[in-house]
Amino acid sequence: MVEAFPWDKAPRYLLRDRDRIYGTTFWQRIQHMGIEEIMIARLSPWQNPYVERLIGSIRRECLDHVIVLHEHHLRRILMSYFAYYHRWCTHRALAMDTPNSRVVQPPEPGPVWEVPEVGGLHHHYERDAA
Q: pTM for the complete prediction?
């Protein structure tokens, strides 16, 4: 957990199942990092839809389309995808906004530029500044 999340960037919550692999040491580390642990109910894997949805999105929209060369390459791909996902992917639950809110450009005439994201796997579009 320490390697995955540096002290200043740890998430607020950790949703996890009740696997015995998470022992006392893991629990103490989470507590010291200030992460609130939320466990799903016993024998209820259906309670983990958010994590399953996120993992499915990462796989379908990113990892199914690239060949990962090594761990550092995987980390670089995932960081690029997460940046794209938070800056440019709209979500219905956010009233078609992005997790990191952005300024919507007015529909004025003029050239529109395609900007590659995630190594060209995804794109966003911008207008020329007036």
A: 0.59
